[in-house]
Write a structure and sequence with these properties.
alpha/beta; OB fold (Dihydrolipoamide Acetyltransferase, E2P); Rossmann fold; 40% helix; RNA helicase activity; nucleus
C-alpha cells in the first residue's frame, strides 16, 4: 500500500479520539472516591495515623524528668568535685598521721617484745596484717571499680591484665607526651607498646584552654584515661584523672546507663557508636578532636632522592616523620587541595509509614496558582519576571564596571603618575571614601530629607478620635452580641476601628476579670504598632496592662490584660496549654488574610470552644467572605460595622498590558497632570520593583521641568524603617500631590487618608512551595477578585474616587480566582506538621481545616521531619522532635541547635542562628559600594558565610556592642541588636531545658558539622562545567557574589536558602565534607555502590575539547562509520 504522511496519520488519530464515545463512568466514580476522605486515607496512610495525645503528654513528662535528672546530676557532679577536694586533703592529712602513728607504734612494739615475745609477736603480726589488708583494700577499691566495664555480651567484667596488648575502655594509664599541637597532644602509653592516643584540648582540664602548649610539653609524664576506641584510634582524657595520684575522678563514666552502646535514631542500622547525643547523631570524639587530614600522596623518585640526602645530612629527623620509609616510597606527605573522591547519592529507602507515598512513588506536582496559565495576566507576569531579571543583570554589570575602575593598590602615594590636568587624586582621598554618612538615592533624599513625623496628624484628642470611629456608635450592640454568642464573626472595613476598639470595649465590660483578652495579627509589625496605639488610648505604658508578643520578643507583664500577638505566638501557647486557660476572649483579627497559622488556629479553636463554654471567640475580617467563616464556625452570627465608604469608579484597559510596570508609571503621571487634587496609591509586588518605580517616576518628573506641580514619591514595604513608613500618613502640602507606592500591605493592614486614586496592575508576589523539589519560591501571580475589590475600596475612604485597573474586564472575570489561595495550600508545612504532632494530632486528613492542604505537601513535610529524626519509623513524634517543637524556629534550625549541644559548639550556633534570623547584616551605599565591600571582606572566613556572620557578631561583641563600630564597618546596628535579642531568647529556652551552652573555640569543624546536621538536604556539589548542582534535584545553582566563598568555589557546600535573581543563587554557604552527609543524615544520603555507576555520573555528558577544524560530534563512532 501507499505510505501516508506522518502529519496526516496524527490528524486522523486525533479525529478518531474525538469521535469515540466517552469511557464508562465507573472510572470517574473510582477517582471521585479516591479524592474523598476515605480514598485519601487509603492512599496516604501516613496522614491518617490515629491521634494520640497521651503519647504527647508522655513525651513532655519524659523531657521534664530528663530536665530534673540533668539538674540532679549537675548538683551531684558539683558535690563530687567538692567531696574529691575534701578527700584529697583528708588523705594527705591521714598520710602524715599514719607515718607519725607508725613511728610511735614501732617504739611500743620493741618495748613489748622484751616483755613477752610469743603473745606479743602474734598480736603484732595480726594487727599489721589487718592494717595492711585494710589499706590495700581501700587503695584498690576505687581502682577495681574504675576498671569494671560492660562487656560485649552485656555482662560485667573486671579489667585484669591485657590480652593481645590492647587498651581497655575507661582504664587509666600512665603515658608520655610525644607530640604537642595547638589543638591537643599525642600521648604514648607506657604499659602498651606502640599505642598512642590523642588528648584534645577540651579534655585537658575542666577550664577552657586556648592552646594545648600552655598546659603540656613534650616528654612530660601524664596520667590519661581511655574514653573512646575507634579502630586503631584512641581518644584520651587528662581532666578525668588526678595528675598527682593517677586516680580516676569520674568513675561513673563507665556506667551502663551513660555509655552503653546505642543505635542512631536519626539513621538506619548504624551499630554501636562512641556516643549518642541529644539530637540522635553519632558523635565520634576522636574525629572531632583531631585536625582534618588530607589524603596522603607518595613521593616521586627525585623527591625520594632529595629526602635521603636530607636524612644523611641530619637536616631531616626521622623521629619527626614517623611515616618515612627509607627503603620504600619515602615520606608520605599531604597534598594541598587534594580530597578523597566520594560518591554520595540519595537514600531512596522509604520508611514503613511512608511506603508508596513519597516523591519516589507518587507524582508530586507543584500547587497551581494560576487560574488560566495561558491568559494575558500569566503572560504579563512572566514578562515582568524576565524584565526584572534583565534589570538586575544591567545593574550587576554596572557594579562590576565600577569595581574594576577603583584602584586595587592604595599604598602608593599617587594613583596615576601621568594624569590629565584636574584629575590628580591622592590615594588617601580614595581610601577615605565610604566613611561619610549613608548615601541615599536622590528620590529618597527628596522624599525623606525633611524632618520626620510619626503617626497621622490630627487636631482631635485621643478620646475624640475614638468617638469618631464608625464602631463607636455600635459599642453597646457589639458587647451584647459577644455576650450572647460564644463565636462571633465581625465584618468591617479597614479603618472602622475593630482592631483597636473591640479589645478595649470588652475590657471595659469586665471580660478581663476572668482572664486576658488576646488578639492575633498576621504580621509582627501590626502587632507592635496596634499594641502601642491601644496602650496610648488605654492610658498605660506599653508592656503593662497592654502588651504584645512576637517571635523572639515578649513585651508583656503580670498585669497585662490586653495582649496583641502574631498568630504563630498563640499557636505556640496552645502547644503549652491546649485549653488557653489564661484567656477569656480570643480575637482572630484580619482573618481574611488566611495565613498558615490562622488556618490551624481555626481548627484548634473550633475544638476548644466545645470544651470551654466560657471562652469567647471573635473572628474579624475586612472582606465579604463572612458567610464562609460563619458556616465554618457552627453557622454563628455575623456582626457588620458599616464603613465610611464613597462610590469608586472602576476603569479597565481595553487591551491587555504586557509591561504593567511601565503602564502603571504612565498612569500615575497621567493622573497627576490631568486629574483634580487627591493622592495616588500604586500597588506593586515587592521592594525591588517599588524602588525601580520610584526612581523612574522621579527621573520622569525631573524631565517634565519645574512648571509641573510637585509629586512626592513615598514607598511602603516591610523592610522599610518604621520612621520612613510613617511619612505616608502625613497629608501632602497645598499645591502638591503624593503618590504612595506600596505592596499588598496597603490593601487592609494600613489606613491612609487622602487617597482618591488607586492604580492596580493586578499582581502580587506569593510564596509557593514545590513538594517535588522541596523548595519555596517567591513568584509574581495575579491577585484574586477579593483583593481587587479591597484595592478599589482604598480610593473611597475620603471621598468619591477612581480605580485604574491595568487589565481587561475579561481578565478580571476569567483569569482571577474569587479568593486568594490560602497559605496552607501553597507553602512548606514542616513547622506546622511538627507542632501538630507535638499536640498529639497525627490524623492530619481528618483535622478540620477550613481549606485542607494538599496531601503531597503534608507527605513532603513528614518526609523532611523523618530525615531530621523528629519522627520514628511509625510516623510518631520522637523525643528529639518534641524538643525541636519547643523552639520558635524552622525544624532544620531547631535540629542544628540541638546537634550543636552534642557536638560542643552551641554557643557559636546560637549566634549564627540569631544572625540568620535578622536578615541582611551589611549595607552597601550606592556611591560607597567598593569601600563597603572591602570592609565586608575583612570578616570573610574560609569556611563560609555562617562563620563570617559569627565573626561579625564576635567583633561587635569585642567592641562592647558599639554603634560607631557598625557605622565604620557598613554593618546595620539595628540588625545586630535584633540578633542580640534573638540570641537572648533562644538562650533562655536552652536554660529552661538545661541544655549546655558550650564553646568550640577554634574548632570550626564542630560548627560546620552542626550546620550540616540541620541543612543536609541543601547540599550541593561543584559541577565540572559551571556552578554547582544540588544533590536532591540536580538543579543548577550558583554561589552568590556577596558570599565569602565566591572566589574559592569549594567542591562541596551547604546553603541556607536559594534566591532567584539573575540565576538561582545560594545564600549563606558553608564548606562541608561529603562524609558528614552520610554520617549525620543516613536516612537521607548514602554512599554510592562503587561497583555500579551512580545516578549523577549517568546524567553527565561527555564534552570533548573544542576543535575548530572538525564538527562538534565528529568524534562519535556513528559519525566515523558514516
Amino acid at each position: 500500500g501507499a505510505e501516508l504522511p506522518d502529519y496526516f496519520v496524527r490528524t486522523l488519530l486525533t479525529i478518531i479520539h474525538a469521535i469515540l464515545p466517552p469511557k464508562p463512568k465507573a472510572a470517574d466514580k473510582d477517582s471521585k472516591a479516591e479524592n474523598t476522605g476515605d480514598g485519601k486515607k487509603s492512599k496516604f496512610k501516613a496522614l491518617a495515623i490515629a491521634d494520640d495525645k497521651d503519647r504527647a503528654k508522655e513525651l513532655e513528662e519524659e523531657i521534664e524528668m530528663e530536665m530534673r535528672d540533668r539538674k540532679d546530676k549537675d548538683r551531684d557532679r558539683d558535690g563530687d568535685r567538692d567531696k574529691r577536694d575534701r578527700d584529697r586533703d583528708r588523705d594527705r592529712d591521714r598520710g602524715r598521721d599514719r607515718s607519725r602513728h607508725r613511728d610511735r607504734y614501732k617504739e611500743e612494739e620493741e618495748e613489748e617484745d622484751r616483755r613477752d615475745y610469743g603473745i606479743r609477736g602474734r598480736n603484732r603480726n595480726r594487727t599489721r596484717d589487718n592494717e595492711d589488708d585494710r589499706d590495700y583494700r581501700n587503695r584498690g577499691r576505687n581502682r577495681d571499680r574504675d576498671n569494671v566495664e560492660r562487656d560485649e555480651d552485656g555482662g560485667r567484667r573486671s579489667n585484669g591484665k591485657y590480652r593481645d596488648n590492647e587498651p581497655e575502655l575507661y582504664k587509666v594509664y600512665k603515658g608520655r607526651v610525644s607530640r604537642v599541637m595547638d589543638s591537643g597532644c599525642f600521648v604514648q602509653l607506657n604499659e602498651l607498646r606502640g599505642k598512642e592516643g590523642l588528648v584534645h584540648v577540651s579534655q585537658m582540664a575542666s577550664r577552657r584552654i586556648p592552646n594545648a602548649k600552655d598546659v603540656v610539653k613534650r616528654d612530660q609524664e601524664v596520667y590519661v584515661k581511655v574514653i573512646s576506641i575507634s579502630g586503631q584510634k584512641l581518644s584520651l582524657s587528662m581532666r578525668d584523672v588526678d595528675q598527682n595520684t593517677g586516680r580516676d575522678l569520674l568513675p561513673l563514666k563507665n556506667s551502663s546507663d551513660d555509655d552503653a552502646f546505642r543505635t542512631n535514631p536519626s539513621g538506619g542500622k548504624e551499630g554501636p557508636v562512641t556516643r549518642t547525643g541529644l539530637s540522635g547523631i553519632r558523635i565520634l570524639e576522636d574525629e572531632d578532636a583531631a585536625p582534618s587530614r588530607r589524603p596522603l600522596k607518595r613521593m616521586s623518585s627525585p623527591e625520594r632522592w632529595e629526602a635521603k640526602q636530607l636524612v644523611a645530612s641530619g637536616v631531616l629527623r626521622l623521629d619527626e616523620h614517623p611515616m618515612y620509609d627509607e627503603d620504600g616510597d619515602g615520606v608520605l606527605y599531604q597534598e594541598e587541595g587534594a580530597e578523597e573522591e566520594l560518591e554520595i547519592e540519595m537514600n531512596e529507602d522509604e520508611p514503613a509509614f511512608l511506603q508508596g507515598q513519597t516523591r519516589y512513588s507518587v507524582d508530586m506536582s507543584p500547587v497551581k496558582i494560576f487560574k488560566n496559565p495561558e491568559g494575558s495576566l500569566s503572560r504579563a507576569a512572566a514578562l515582568q519576571s524576565a524584565l526584572i531579571k534583565e534589570r538586575r543583570e544591567v545593574r550587576e554589570q554596572q557594579q562590576r564596571t565600577m569595581l574594576d575602575s577603583i584602584p586595587k593598590d592604595l599604598n602608593r602615594p599617587w594613583e596615576d603618575p601621568m594624569p590629565e590636568t584636574g584629575e590628580r587624586h591622592l590615594a588617601q582621598e580614595l581610601r577615605g571614601v565610604g566613611l561619610s554618612a549613608y548615601d541615599m538615592p536622590e528620590w529618597k533624599k527628596d522624599a525623606y530629607g525633611k524632618a520626620l513625623t510619626f503617626g497621622q496628624r490630627s487636631k482631635l484628642s485621643i478620646q475624640e478620635q475614638r468617638q469618631s470611629l464608625p464602631i463607636y456608635k455600635l459599642k453597646k450592640e457589639l458587647i451584647q452580641a459577644v455576650h450572647d454568642n460564644q463565636v462571633l464573626v465581625v465584618i468591617g472595613e479597614t479603618g472602622s476601628g475593630k482592631t483597636t476598639q473591640v479589645t478595649q470595649y470588652l475590657a471595659e465590660a469586665g471580660y478581663t476579670t476572668r482572664g486576658k483578652i488576646g488578639c492575633t495579627q498576621p504580621r509582627r509589625v501590626a502587632a507592635m504598632s496596634v499594641a502601642k496605639r491601644v496602650a496610648e488610648e488605654f492610658g498605660c505604658r506599653l508592656g503593662e496592662e497592654v502588651g504584645y508578643a512576637i517571635r523572639f520578643e515578649d513585651c508583656t507583664g503580670p498585669d497585662t490584660v490586653i495582649k496583641y500577638m502574631t498568630d504563630g505566638m498563640l499557636l505556640r501557647e496552645i502547644l503549652i496549654d491546649e485549653n488557653l486557660s489564661q484567656y477569656s476572649v480570643i480575637m482572630l483579627d484580619e482573618a481574611h488574610e488566611r495565613t498558615i497559622h490562622t488556618d490551624v488556629l481555626f481548627g484548634l479553636l473550633k475544638q476548644l470552644v466545645k470544651r470551654r463554654p466560657d471562652l469567647r471567640l471573635i473572628v474579624t475580617s475586612a472582606t465579604l467572605d463572612a458567610e464562609k467563616f460563619s458556616g465554618y464556625f457552627f453557622n454563628c452570627n455575623i456582626f457588620t460595622i458599616p464603613g465610611r465608604t464613597f462610590p469608586v469608579e472602576i476603569l479597565y484597559t481595553k487591551q491587555p498590558e504586557s509591561d504593567y510596570l511601565d503602564a502603571a508609571l504612565i498612569t500615575v503621571l497621567q493622573i497627576h497632570l490631568t486629574e483634580p487634587e487627591g493622592d495616588i496609591l500604586l500597588f506593586l509586588t515587592g521592594q525591588e520593583e517599588i524602588d525601580f518605580a520610584c526612581q523612574s517616576l522621579y527621573e520622569r518628573m525631573k524631565g517634565l521641568g519645574k512648571n509641573v506641580p510637585e509629586l512626592i514619591i513615598l514607598p511602603v514595604y516591610s523592610a522599610l524603617p518604621s520612621e520612613m513608613q510613617s511619612r505616608i500618613f502625613d497629608p501632602a502640602p497645598p499645591g502638591k500631590r503624593k503618590v504612595v507606592v506600596a505592596t499588598n500591605i496597603a490593601e487592609a493592614s494600613l489606613t491612609i487618608d487622602g487617597i482618591f486614586y488607586v492604580v492596580d496592575p493586578g499582581f502580587a508576589k506569593q510564596n509557593v512551595y514545590n513538594p517535588k523539589q522541596g523548595l519555596d519560591s517567591l513568584i509574581i501571580t495575579p491577585i484574586s477578585q477579593a483583593s481587587a475589590k479591597q484595592r478599589a475600596g482604598r480610593a473611597g475612604r475620603t471621598g468619591p474616587g477612581k480605580c485604574y485597573r491595568l487589565y481587561t474586564e475579561s481578565a478580571y472575570r476569567n483569569e482571577m480566582s474569587p479568593t486568594t489561595i490560602p497559605e496552607i495550600q501553597r507553602i512548606n508545612l514542616g513547622t506546622i506538621t511538627l507542632q501538630m504532632k507535638a499536640m498529639g494530632i497525627n490524623d492530619l486528613l481528618s483535622f478540620d481545616f477550613m481549606d485542607p492542604p494538599p496531601p503531597q505537601a503534608l507527605i513532603s513535610a513528614m518526609e523532611q521531619l523523618y530525615s531530621l529524626g523528629a519522627l520514628d519509623e511509625e510516623g510518631l513524634l520522637t523525643k528529639l522532635g518534641r524538643k525541636m517543637a519547643e523552639f520558635p524556629l524552622d525544624p532544620p534550625l531547631s535540629k542544628m541547635l540541638l546537634a550543636s549541644v552534642d557536638l560542643g559548639c552551641s554557643d557559636e550556633i546560637l549566634t549564627i542562628i540569631a544572625m540568620i534570623q535578622t536578615g541582611n547584616i551589611f549595607y552597601r551605599p550606592r556611591e560607597k559600594q567598593a569601600q563597603a565591600d572591602q570592609k565586608r571582606a575583612k570578616f570573610f572566613q574560609p569556611e563560609g558565610d555562617h562563620l563570617t556572620l559569627l565573626a561579625v557578631y564576635e567583633a561587635w561583641k569585642a567592641k562592647n556592642f558599639s554603634g560607631p563600630w557598625c557605622f565604620e564597618n557598613f554593618v546595620q546596628s539595628r540588625s545586630l541588636r535584633r540578633a542580640q535579642d534573638v540570641r537572648k531568647q533562644l538562650l533562655s529556652i536552652m536554660d529552661k531545658y538545661k541544655l549546655d551552652v558550650v564553646s568550640a573555640g577554634k574548632n570550626f569543624t564542630k560548627i560546620r558539622k552542626a550546620i550540616t546536621a540541620g541543612f543536609f538536604f541543601h547540599a550541593s556539589r561543584k559541577d565540572p562545567q559551571e556552578g554547582y548542582r544540588t544533590l536532591v534535584e540536580n538543579q543548577p545553582v550558583y554561589i552568590h557574589p556577596s558570599s565569602a566563598l565566591f572566589q574559592r568555589q569549594p567542591d562541596w557546600v551547604i546553603y541556607h536558602e536559594l534566591v532567584m535573581t539573575t540565576k538561582e543563587y545560594m545564600r549563606e554557604v558553608t564548606v562541608v565534607d561529603p562524609k558528614w552527609l552520610v554520617e549525620l543524615a543516613p536516612r537521607f544520603f548514602k554512599v554510592a555502590d562503587p561497583t555500579k555507576m551512580s545516578k549523577r555520573k549517568r546524567q553527565e555528558r561527555i564534552e570533548p575539547l573544542y576543535d575548530r577544524y572538525h564538527e562538534p560530534n565528529s568524534w562519535r563512532l556513528s559519525k566515523r562509520r558514516a
